């Protein structure tokens, strides 16, 4: 590996403005499409009057669910999401029609003329309302607003509470969060002469987009080809909705026979797209006088919004990690997904873990404070270690369980022990209160038991010695293509410049799963290794005679292919010519299957993940007593990611995740009032600015993971899931006031 060299295969194109995003794509004769919304939050008997819009200058067509040749609804688990509304509106973000016109301006003008009327239905707007007896049922496919329920039963906590030195019972809440990617959704769809519709879109998962589109068109998957292009951020947010935008544009292209572009305004994007799940969490924890957590009961409710999306998967991860990185012998947890008429919720970086960590890591500090045990000591008593058993009954073996080491490194770097003694705890001779706090976590890598996990890779050698590479993970802007290229160059011992990452499509490589769950490097990278090994075996077999050695004696390094004792060697150009003369195709396809996992959904027990990422983040801050304003001074983030493939890119992921996490902790709140929101742009939805960020230090801990063929695990989601509880703990240590709701809002009167 060459970990100290920063590398991005798309860097030059992006910094020079030459990278092609969906809105940059254009075709002759292209039409423009825009969505039409209603002002209803919940309604039935939907009627659409498009007469005025059809007469509008430049208008070509108004498309409704009645025009859909396939299914107007789809979804990843339950096919309940309306790509176009038929007769029932369940959310303010529902799209009722598509207006297609010669120009985007004409389409927007015509869309304003579409009239939508319906019969209002009582809206269910909170988890509490949804759970009331007799509440209106939101989902079309269920007779209850409880759309998923995961149980975890490990031991029996109830009889142990009586013998506990301390019983603590607390409630926490988290908010809906917008993904806030730079590029709103966009798609360009082109009907080809061979009957295939091409899609160029800003989406996270081309194969999911293909499924949404094929369902809407009522056509086979082979009739839809989705191309990979640059994506301006996703963070989990460009799956269902982005796929629906592509599908709508494809429908318009199919019905008009012309290329169609559909590009969202920021207001449409924020109105329609799914958010991070708001949670309500209740914990009862029993602890011994020595600080051992003896018993836990947890109940969580996640607001799923109007449609199911991936709520069962998000809440499953919350279940599997329901008491953080701690080994608890007796714990019961119930995690519910609850339907409301709010804009629906779905995948976002962290995927069910940030909400749980916000509660659990505060609980640990609260317990330490009440028992007068140091917060570090309490964590050491309870944290998972080598050969520990998790709350799901999984024995931690087969990889290095490094949580304590990671915490120790962060504690040392930030000087936690000495600084903890100087915390204000509400008392200061100045207007500033000082606090330091930390949080720890383990995060299951990749999908775990929530899905079947595998990925493929293609290596295609060219006559001139260059190499084409494709892997079944999608580039969302995070640098996965660069990582795959680095891994291949290392495996083949060749110069990175030889490798060209090929722009993939859904017709050129098999579905390798979506780029989620911190699985890109561990799954895609391992697939690259499998393909590279097959490729090398092919070359060894057919070049050994030329190199005057046995096949197993052929080696690859220093940008050449070598025989025994380095007596003979070939350049890559010479090697490729030799293969072509032998009529051998220098091509390999490799598939990596994740190691086995297990799960019993009746009791939440099993080997939930095949490996884990271990993390600790700490923060120093001050709180102004007069204003309640929080000023972040210093952040240290440490993560055991297995093996660093590209250290510069890895640190960038750490800092980006921390930035998003502090926004969630202190600022961001997609406020929903009456099922609607006024937070439809960044003038009202506040995200962190560079001036809000303190100095950050990233600590990369490397313990080669045997479950990964590269030794690497990942960093995408672990980076975001810890800083919020660390900030909450630091604020308590500064003010002496505990804040259990996100975002944290400090009022001056709290500090009086």
Question: Can you offer a commentary on this structure?
Answer:
The structure is a single chain. The chain is α+β, with helices and mostly antiparallel strands. The chain has three domains: 28-121 and 185-263, Aldehyde oxidase/xanthine dehydrogenase, molybdopterin binding domain (Aldehyde Oxidoreductase, domain 4); 279-448 and 600-751, Aldehyde oxidase/xanthine dehydrogenase, molybdopterin binding domain (Aldehyde Oxidoreductase, domain 4); 454-593, Aldehyde Oxidoreductase, domain 4 (2-Layer Sandwich), CATH 3.30.365.10. Helices cover 26% and strands 24% of the residues. The strands form seven sheets. Strands 3-7-1-14-11-12-13 form a seven-stranded mixed sheet. It has a five-stranded mixed sheet with strand order 9-17-16-15-10. The chain has a four-stranded mixed sheet with strand order 18-26-27-28, sandwiched between helices. A hairpin with a 6-residue loop joins strand 23 (560-562) and strand 24. Helix 9 (353-371) packs across helix 10 and helix 16 packs across helix 17. The longest helix has 28 residues, at 520-547. The chain is globular, with a radius of gyration of 27 Å. The model has no long low-confidence stretch (mean pLDDT 95).
How would the blueprint of this fold be written?
Blueprint: H1 11-15, E1 31-37, E2 43-49, H2 51-54, E3 59-63, E4 73-74, E5 81-82, E6 88-89, E7 95-101, H3 104-111, E8 115-120, H4 127-131, E9 146-154, E10 166-173, E11 186-191, E12 197-201, H5 206-217, E13 224-227, H6 240-256, E14 260-263, H7 266-272, E15 279-287, E16 293-305, H8 311-320, E17 331-339, H9 353-371, H10 375-382, H11 403-414, H12 416-420, E18 432-444, E19 454-461, E20 467-471, H13 480-492, E21 499-501, H14 520-547, E22 555-557, E23 560-562, E24 569-571, H15 572-581, E25 587-593, E26 612-624, E27 630-640, H16 647-666, E28 695-701, H17 723-735
Parallel strand pairs: 1-14, 12-13, 16-17, 20-21, 27-28
Antiparallel strand pairs: 1-7, 2-6, 2-8, 3-7, 4-5, 9-17, 10-15, 11-12, 11-14, 15-16, 18-26, 19-20, 19-25, 22-23, 23-24, 26-27
């Amino acid at each position: 590996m060459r970990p100290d060299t920063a590398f991005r295969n798309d860097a030059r194109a992006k910094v020079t403005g030459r990278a092609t995003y969906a809105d940059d794509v254009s075709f002759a004769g292209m039409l423009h499409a825009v969505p039409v919304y209603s002002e209803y939050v919940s309604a039935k008997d939907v009627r659409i009057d498009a007469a005025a819009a059809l007469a509008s200058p430049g208008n070509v067509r108004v498309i409704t669910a009645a025009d859909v040749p396939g299914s107007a609804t789809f979804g990843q688990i339950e096919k309940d999401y309306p790509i176009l509304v038929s007769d029932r509106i369940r959310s303010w973000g529902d799209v009722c029609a598509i207006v297609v016109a010669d120009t985007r301006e004409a389409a927007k003008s015509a869309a304003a003329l579409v009239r939508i009327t319906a019969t209002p239905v009582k809206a269910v707007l909170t988890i509490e309302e949804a759970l009331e007896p007799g509440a209106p049922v939101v989902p079309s496919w269920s007779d209850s607003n409880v759309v998923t329920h995961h149980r975890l039963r490990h031991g029996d906590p109830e009889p142990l509470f009586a013998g506990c030195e301390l019983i603590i019972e607390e409630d926490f809440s988290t908010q809906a969060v917008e993904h806030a990617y730079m590029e709103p959704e966009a798609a360009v769809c082109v009907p080809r002469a061979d009957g295939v519709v091409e899609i160029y879109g800003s989406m996270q998962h081309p194969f999911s987009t293909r499924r949404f589109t094929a369902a809407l068109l009522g056509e086979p998957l082979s009739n839809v080809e989705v191309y990979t292009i640059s994506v301006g951020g996703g963070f989990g947010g460009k799956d269902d909705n982005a796929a629906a935008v592509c599908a709508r544009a494809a429908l318009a292209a199919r019905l008009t026979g012309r290329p169609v572009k559909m590009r969202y305004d920021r207001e449409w994007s924020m109105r329609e797209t799914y958010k991070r799940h708001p949670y309500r969490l209740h914990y009862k924890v029993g602890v011994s006088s020595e600080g051992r957590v003896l018993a836990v009961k947890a109940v969580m409710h996640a607001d799923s919004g109007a449609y199911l999306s991936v709520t069962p998967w998000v809440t499953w991860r919350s279940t599997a990690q329901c008491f953080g990185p701690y080994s608890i012998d007796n714990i019961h947890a119930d995690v519910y997904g609850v339907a409301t008429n709010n804009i629906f919720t779905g995948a976002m970086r962290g995927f069910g873990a940030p909400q749980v960590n916000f509660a659990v890591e505060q609980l640990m500090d609260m317990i330490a404070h009440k028992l007068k045990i140091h917060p570090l000591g309490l964590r050491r008593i309870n944290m998972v270690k080598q050969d520990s058993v998790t709350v799901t009954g999984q024995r931690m073996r087969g990889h290095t369980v490094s949580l304590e080491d990671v915490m120790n490194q962060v504690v040392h770097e930030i000087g936690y022990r000495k600084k903890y003694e100087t915390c204000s705890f509400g008392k200061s001779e100045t207007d500033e209160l000082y606090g330091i706090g930390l949080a720890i976590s383990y995060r299951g890598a990749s999908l775990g038991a929530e899905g079947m996990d595998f990925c493929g890779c293609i290596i295609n050698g060219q006559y001139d010695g260059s190499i084409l590479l494709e892997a079944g993970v999608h580039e969302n802007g995070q640098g996965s293509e660069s990582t795959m290229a680095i891994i291949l160059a290392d495996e083949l011992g060749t110069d990175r410049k030889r490798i060209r990452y090929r722009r993939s499509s859904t017709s050129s490589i098999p579905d390798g799963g979506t780029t989620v769950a911190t699985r890109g490097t561990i799954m895609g990278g391992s697939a690259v290794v499998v393909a590279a090994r097959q490729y090398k075996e092919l070359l060894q077999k057919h070049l050994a005679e030329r190199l005057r050695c046995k096949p197993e004696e052929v080696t690859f390094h220093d940008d050449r292919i070598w025989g025994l004792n380095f007596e003979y060697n070939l350049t890559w150009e010479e090697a490729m010519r030799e293969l072509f003369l032998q009529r051998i195709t220098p091509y390999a396809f490799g598939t990596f299957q994740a190691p086995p996992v297990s799960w019993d959904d009746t009791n939440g027990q099993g080997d939930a993940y095949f490996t884990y990422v271990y993390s600790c983040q700490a923060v120093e801050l001050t709180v102004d007593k007069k204003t309640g304003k929080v000023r972040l001074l210093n952040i240290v983030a440490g993560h055991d990611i297995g093996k660093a493939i590209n250290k510069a890119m890895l640190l960038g992921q750490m800092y980006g995740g921390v930035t998003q996490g502090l926004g969630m902790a202190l600022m961001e709140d997609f406020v929903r009032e009456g099922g609607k929101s006024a937070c439809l742009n960044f003038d009202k939805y506040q995200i962190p600015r560079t001036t809000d960020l303190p100095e950050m230090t990233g600590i990369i801990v490397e313990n080669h993971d045997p479950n990964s063929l590269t030794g690497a695990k990942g960093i995408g989601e672990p980076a975001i899931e810890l800083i919020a509880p660390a900030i909450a703990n630091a604020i308590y240590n500064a003010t002496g006031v505990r804040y259990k709701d996100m975002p944290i809002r400090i009022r001056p009167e709290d500090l009086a």
